[in-house]
Amino acid sequence: MTDLSQTGMAALLTLVFVLVYLLMNRMTYLLFAEDKARAQLGVWRIPERTLLCAAFFGGWIEAKVAQRHLRHKTRKEPFRSQLNVVGLVHVAALVLGAMALPDVSRMAADAANRMMVDGAGTFLEPESPKMPRRFGPGS
């Protein structure tokens, strides 16, 4: 695998991660909204464990937005504290992930500097410069 394809794969995986994260956030908000509606109707509720799991697996931001916007589960302990712990875990994971990920733009620039494209659009390794021979015949 060349550096360029590794860079493309890293960018694709980053895009997929961001899209899944956004989808999980939206789904978590909708779960909170559904639970609020069920609470107002007095019918069976969504378990707190389900709401916390949705927040943990990618929906923490929208969980906090829903909590404030819908005024839902704002005073309920230990739920409120547990949701805040999930937020701390998300922030820590984001910081550690950002520190661990390679700089994709730097990788792409390095790959572009090392490769040249011929007229057909295929990648060629640049030729090494011809060095004069120091030993042997002809020196």
Describe this structure as you would to a colleague:
68% of the residues lie in helices and 3% in strands. It has 139 residues and is mainly alpha-helical. It has a two-stranded antiparallel sheet. α2 (48-69) crosses α3 (79-100). The radius of gyration is 26 Å and the shape is rod-shaped. The two termini are 39 Å apart.
Compute the separation of the termini in Å.
39 Å
* Secondary structural class: mainly alpha
* Chain oligomer state: single chain
Q: Number of helix segments? A: 4
Helicity level, as a percent range? Answer: 55-70%
Compute the gyration radius: what is it? 26 Å
Mean pLDDT: 80
Largest sheet: 2 strands, antiparallel
Element-level helix/strand string: HHHHEE
Compute the number of strand runs: 2
Q: Shape from CA axes? A: rod-shaped
Across the major sheet, the strand order is 1-2
Stretches with pLDDT under 50, minimum 5 residues: none
Percent strand equals under 5%
What is the topology?
Layout: H1 3-41, H2 48-69, H3 79-100, H4 104-114, E1 116-117, E2 123-124
